[in-house]
Amino acid sequence: MKQVFLALSGAVLALAARADTIVFSDFGPGGIYSQNFSASGPATSPFEEVAAQFTAGASGNLAIIDLGLTYVTQGAANVFLYHDASGLPDNANQTFLGSVTPTAVFGTTNNTVVSLTVTGSVPVTMGNVYWLVLKPGAANEEDAWNLGAAAGLGATSSDDVTWSTSGGVVFLPAFRITASGGATVPDSGGTLLLMVGSVAVLFALHRMCPCQQAGRCC
């Protein structure tokens, strides 16, 4: 009985563990984005970096960054997470996440996604404002960060220092951010309650059994 009790207790704890969760996404239904329009860059003719502001919808460590990224002249794009400084990307608080290279030509697809797996611990906190920033990896490329389905604030920089906003709310480039290791949330309230009830019953039976074996009541 003790072994069953411990097993069910472990199951309850497992149910409380949350899998990867979406921090932000502006992909349309079915993971589509616009193939007819593109955010400016990231490109190097002229050199330009592109930033998209987002508010974290969950806490955890960044796990996967999915981008609606295509190319005109193929090349790698470096991906960064910036904190926010009064409505602009905070140059003093940025983290390099990795590099990605688009595989589809701009204007030929609306659902080809380029994914980046984030290594190490890069935390985000639910409710906090951040910027996802793409920078060109070379001087002879032009990648197109296609527009998503949600409006927000964007910014660009041509010198990696000074940022200028889009002048108001615009359609953001398409991206999805997934995090892991967030706060625990049961996967099913009904299932968790059932498990807790089962554990309670087994605990009561565990206390009753010695009495029954002795042929008396407790």
Rg measurement, Å: 24 Å
Cα(first) to Cα(last) distance is 18 Å
Overall mean pLDDT stands at 78
Strand content: 35-45%
Any guess at the CATH architecture of the largest domain? Answer: Sandwich
The best one-word shape is globular
Count of individual helical segments? 2
CATH class of the largest domain: Mainly Beta
Give a count of the beta strands, DSSP E runs of length 2 or more. Answer: 16
Class per helix and strand makeup: alpha+beta
Domain tally: 2
Determine the CATH topology of the largest domain.
Jelly Rolls
What order do the SSEs take from the amino end to the carboxyl end, as H and E?
HEEEEEEEEEEEEEEEEH
User: Helix content range of the residues, please?
Assistant: 10-25%
Largest sheet, in brief, is:
7 strands, antiparallel
> Which blocks of ≥5 consecutive residues have pLDDT under 50?
1-18, 183-218
